[in-house]
Design brief:
The structure is a homotetramer of 222-residue chains. With 222 residues, chain A is an all-alpha fold. Helix content of chain A is 71%, strand content 0%. The longest helix of chain A is centred in the N-terminal third of the chain and has 28 residues. Chains in contact: A-B, A-D, B-C, C-D.
């Protein structure tokens, strides 16, 4: 089975640069401001700015998922994707995410390897991650169906979703995994990650159902 | 009479996600910052980010009005729209708006059902809602006439209008209805809603006149 | 001589809504935040959001200058524009600007007619207005030459220029005239307006020279 | 050897206006707010707003590099560029950057010539400049390869990168050179500049390798 090296590099690098942007701007934000609102505003705008570029430049190489849930939903919608390709993407994304956190740690003079102590837990937060993931999936596949520039939509949506979900819309098991390695504003404690990933998978299932109902051709006749 | 299920789902879901974004970011904002300016900035940017995606993805399914005034003005301009279709849209929008507020309440650990105590009243505020609605309608139909990407224009306009109208540009009876069910920054007390809805209808009539004068082909000869 | 009514209405309404956005968001900003940085950030983002929509929707009707300097430079570049058309535009823009300030005053419960006491004066500020006007003109005609979406460029540029010029880039004698009627953050004292208008005219002459050198076809051979 | 005057003017003026925007908004920001987070947010948004316009309008004249590293990498990728052209660009960019800082100083009533005392040094900061430069290069050439509007990508990316790199992503030896002449938030002390320029050159080499691996046609077969 042939694996395209550029495809792998794009998922690895794209996820790495995304996590670097999320974590780096989180560290910068808590260093510069005492107003947590200003911190999240900076973190959200920086993440959106990075997403626009990364999805645009890596899209032609790998589809620019940077997200195991997006990769899996994509494989269910587009039947031609092989299991090896899915597995390779998820490994690329997860290792990329860790690499991104490490790069951010080095840039900001943190310990190269550190772990988050930021507990993110509880029913409302878990429910929020389900909603966040469903929302992200609708934006991606609705945007594709509408023939829109998906990178712009995702960048704007995530900038907003940092604010309008109580969990700040991680919505991505790989990015969440990488964020475990940051002792900062943007981190997530290792003990909180598994339930986040589980909720994101549930969001993936629900999101997939919505996408079929709303955006897949000839699925609904009324 | 045939009702398209995807059309109904799009108006319901779109309005729900919009109100969820408005209310959710309002709650997050007042939790994180003590500076009300920072709160409104976050609320405005999050609303704009959500609008861009939602109008883009649901536009092809239902026109993505999410707003009874927009639906009604559309029906007056485009004579082929049936009364049943208009009524169905308004019901979808209003119930969607309430659902969106409830989802936000659950995500942020609020009571599932709660009502706003935020009184929004007085001549300047009412006048502001008329202006806000006229402005929104001009942007939508002027943008269509110009062949522009209307979702971008509306997203940017509303982000600004949260600031440049004293009523923070609700400009939407359905979204206003949903916001009654949020005891937060973004709420509107039930006793304040009717006059807001009435002013938005007046804005709809005035906006419709402006649209005819400015943007409907062959209406003006000079 | 035939005057197109929609053209006149577009210049009047566009300038009115622009000044309303500038003044309204200025009042809201100083009401909500004590941090002048947050105030200007809100004022700048709101102005940009309004500009994107207004230039886009009124462009096809009147060119959407909303600015006597832009109208005059346009007349020098495009020789076919009549003196009556230029004069009508400037009257529309100036009266529109005043109307916009009045609408903002009413929306925010200020006196309908009020004047600014905000002195804006001194060499650096005047120099800043020259630079601001040159910059705006380059963006408009450079954007046209490049075949870009000029409304987006102007909106983004002005959002930035509120920050990177010491005069907050009024760069528009009509908008400046309207802002005299606002006793707020965004106002300009009547005694400060004439030198601003004069500096903007100088900026217009310099900007016109740059445009000819850089963007007018067959002007430079090297 | 023929040097195109418009090309030279575009690199000079574009870099000048960019540095003016960076320095001017930095001065304004530290004047208006005491929250350093708000300062950097304003500085970042103003820089992004300026970049969108400047790259768009000067792109057709000179490619709108405004950056010696971008010019050099471009010369390595596009073999037809002469050494004289590269040298002329770098001189235009560097003198333009200084001119831009001087214009900002005059607008804000600073001494016309002043130097920064802002030490930016240390391993993490230097590493950050390498990363910042690599990121910028990937966005530019990846965006070109994807057929995207590169000005939008660069504007959004840099707005974010001010936050997610510890060095605030100067990523440009010419702009850094100009910023030495500003005693402000946005300045860089003359003794800190050489290592920044050196790190940016290293970033250029690494970025060039990535671009070849990822975006140059027929380079990778897998």
């Amino acid at each position: 089975m042939l694996i395209n090296r550029r495809h792998v590099a794009a998922e690895f690098l794209g996820t790495a640069l995304l996590v670097m942007a999320v974590v780096g701007s989180g560290i910068m934000a808590e260093t510069l401001s005492k107003d947590v609102g200003v911190q999240l505003l900076a973190n959200a705008i920086a993440t959106g700015g990075a997403l626009l570029g990364l999805i645009t430049i890596f899209g032609p190489l790998s589809g620019a998922s940077f997200n195991p849930v997006v990769t899996l939903v994509g494989a269910f919608i587009d039947k031609g994707v092989s299991a090896v390709s899915v597995a390779t993407d998820i490994v690329s994304q997860t290792t990329g995410a860790v690499a991104g956190a490490i790069v951010a740690n080095i840039m900001f003079g943190h310990a190269t390897f550190e772990t988050s102590q930021k507990i993110r837990t509880g029913g409302p937060t878990w429910f929020s991650e389900v909603v966040a993931t469903v929302g992200l999936l609708l934006i991606i596949w609705g945007g594709k169906k509408a023939g829109a520039h998906v990178a712009s939509l995702v960048a704007a949506w995530i900038t907003g979703a940092y604010w309008f979900t109580s969990s700040t819309s991680i919505a991505n098991p790989a990015v969440g995994f990488g964020r475990m390695f940051s002792h900062s504003f943007a981190g997530i404690a290792p003990e909180s990650w598994p339930m986040f990933a589980f909720m994101q998978m549930i969001g993936g299932v629900i999101g997939y159902s919505f996408i079929k109902l709303l955006f897949i051709e000839n699925e609904v006749n009324a």
